[in-house]
UniProtKB/TrEMBL annotation:
GO terms for biological process: protein folding. InterPro entries: PDI, PDI_thioredoxin-like_dom, Thioredoxin-like_sf, Thioredoxin_CS, Thioredoxin_domain. It comes from Drosophila virilis. This is Thioredoxin domain-containing protein. It holds the Pfam family Thioredoxin. Residues 1-23 form the signal peptide. GO terms for cellular component: endoplasmic reticulum. Gene3D superfamilies: Glutaredoxin. The gene is Dvir\GJ14762. Keywords: Isomerase, Redox-active center, Repeat, Signal.
Length: 410
C-alpha cells in the first residue's frame, strides 16, 4: 500500500484514528468496567512476545491527544485479532514508563505503530491512515492473508459449491462484525440513524434491493446504525444520513450520489460489479438507466498493463488518489464532470484514476513519483508531463486541458 499524505511528525506526529488502548492515567481516564483487549508489554515481556509470533505494537504516551483518539480503535482491533492462536497479537507499550524500550525501536513520535513479524529482525512501521480498513489491509498484506478459511470460501465459490449466504437480505452490521464483513468482496453499505426521515423512507427500498439481487452473489447489501456504532461511521467520514458507500475489500471506493429509487440503485450495482449474462433482472434494470449513467467517463485503472494501455497513445489525464483522502473525495464530482463534458465534445482525451492504496497499483504510484493525494498528471503518448498544480475548480481544469488539445469547445 502506498500512503504518502504528509503529516507533521512532532511529538504527537502520526494522525491515526482510534484503535486500541493506552494505559489508564489521570490524563487518560477509563471506565473501571471497560475491558482492555490489547496486550500491555514491558521490557521483560516484549522479547518473549515477539519470539512467540507476529505482534503489532502501539508505542504511545498517555498524554498524547492522537494516542487518546486511537485508543478505542486499537482496542477494537485487539478484540477482533486477539483470539485463540491469533495470526497477529495486538499490543501496546507505554513510552512514559519504558523509555529505553521505545528508544531501542526508533520511536520518535506518538503513536508509533510497528509490526514485528515472526522470525524477522527488522520491524515494519505502519505509515497509513489510522482507520480500521487501512490497518487491517496493512496486516493482511504483510502477513499474506486472507486467512485459510477465506481462501476455502473463495474456492467453494469458484466451484459453485457455496453461494454468498447474505444474498437476498440486508446484513445488519455492528462494531464486532463490520471489519470482517467488508474485508473482502463488494459491499453496498447504508450508514443511517433511526431518527432520520430520509433513512426511514429509504428503508423499505433498501430491503427490496437486497431481495432483487438474490441471483447476484457478487455483492452484499448491508447497513449500520451510526447512533450505536459511531466509531465505524467516523472512520468512514460519514457526515450525513443516509450515507451509501461502495466498499471493496475493506476499502471505500466511492460515495453513492444518485437517486434512491429501486431501479437506479440496482443499475448502480450493475455498474460496479458488471452484470453476468444469466441475471436477466439485473440486465433489465441496466436497460432502464439513461445511456449517460452507463457510460464510463473515468476509467478505473488497475495494474501496470491497464495503466500503460490508457496512457501509451494519445492524451490521458490521470488522477492518482487514495479513497480515504478528503481532497480526493472533494475532487471526485468535478473530475467526473470534466470527463463527461470533455468526452461529450469528442476531443479525444482519456480520463482515468489510479487508487494508490491498491497493492497492484503500489509500484505504479512509486514509479510516477506520486508524493501526495490527489496528484494529477497529463500523459502525451506515454510521456508524463509536468504535474498539474493549479486550482481544482472545473474552469481551471478545463483551461489546462485546452492547452494540450488545442480546442476551445469545453
Amino acid at each position: 500500500m502506498l500512503f504518502k499524505s504528509i503529516i507533521p511528525l512532532a511529538i504527537c506526529a502520526l494522525s491515526i484514528k482510534p484503535f486500541l488502548a493506552a494505559a489508564a492515567t489521570d490524563d487518560d481516564p477509563k471506565p473501571a468496567d471497560e475491558k482492555q483487549f490489547a496486550v500491555e508489554l514491558n521490557p521483560e515481556t516484549f522479547d518473549e512476545a515477539i519470539k512467540a509470533g507476529n505482534v503489532f505494537v502501539k508505542f504511545f504516551a498517555p498524554w498524547c491527544g492522537h494516542c487518546k483518539r486511537l485508543h478505542p480503535l486499537w482496542e477494537q482491533l485487539a478484540e477482533i485479532m486477539n483470539i485463540d492462536e491469533p495470526k497477529v497479537t495486538i499490543a501496546k507499550v507505554d513510552c512514559t514508563k519504558h523509555q529505553t524500550l521505545c528508544a531501542d525501536h526508533q520511536v520518535t513520535g506518538y503513536p508509533t505503530l510497528r509490526l514485528f513479524k515472526l522470525g524477522e529482525k527488522e520491524s515494519i512501521k505502519f505509515k497509513g491512515t489510522r482507520d480500521l480498513p487501512a490497518i487491517t489491509d496493512f496486516i493482511n498484506q504483510e502477513l499474506n492473508t486472507p486467512a485459510e478459511e477465506d481462501l476455502s470460501e473463495q474456492q467453494q465459490h469458484l466451484d459453485g459449491s457455496e453461494t454468498n449466504p447474505n444474498v437476498g437480505k440486508v446484513v445488519d452490521l455492528t462494531e464486532e462484525t463490520f471489519a470482517k464483513h467488508v474485508s473482502s468482496g463488494n459491499h453496498f453499505v447504508k450508514f443511517f440513524a433511526p431518527w432520520c426521515s430520509h433513512c426511514q423512507r429509504l428503508a423499505p427500498t433498501w430491503e427490496e434491493l437486497a431481495k432483487e439481487l438474490i441471483k447476484e452473489p457478487e455483492a452484499t447489501i448491508s447497513k449500520i446504525d451510526c447512533t450505536q456504532y459511531r466509531s465505524i461511521c467516523q472512520d468512514f467520514e460519514v457526515k450525513g444520513y443516509p450515507t451509501l458507500l461502495w466498499i471493496e475489500d475493506g476499502k471505500k471506493i466511492e460515495k453513492y450520489a444518485g437517486a434512491r429509487d429501486l431501479s437506479t440503485l440496482k443499475t448502480y450495482v450493475v455498474k460496479m460489479i458488471g452484470a453476468p449474462s444469466g441475471t436477466h433482472d439485473l440486465e433489465d434494470a441496466a436497460k432502464e438507466a439513461p445511456a449517460e449513467a452507463k457510460k464510463q467517463n473515468v476509467l478505473q485503472l488497475n495494474g501496470n498493463e491497464e495503466f500503460e494501455k490508457a496512457t501509451g497513445d494519445g492524451i490521458a489525464f490521470v488522477k492518482f488518489y487514495a479513497p480515504w483522502c478528503g481532497h480526493c473525495q472533494k475532487l471526485q464530482p468535478t473530475w467526473e464532470q470534466l470527463a463527461t463534458e470533455t468526452q461529450a465534445a469528442d476531443l479525444g482525451i482519456v480520463f482515468a484514476k489510479v487508487d494508490c492504496t491498491s497493492p497492484e497499483n503500489k509500484q505504479i504510484c512509486i514509479d510516477q513519483q506520486v508524493e501526495g493525494y490527489p496528484t494529477l498528471f497529463i500523459y502525451k503518448n506515454g510521456q508524463r508531463q509536468k504535474e498539474y498544480d493549479g486550482s481544482r475548480s472545473l474552469p481551471e481544469l478545463q483551461a489546462y486541458v485546452r492547452k494540450f488539445i488545442g480546442h476551445d469547445e469545453l
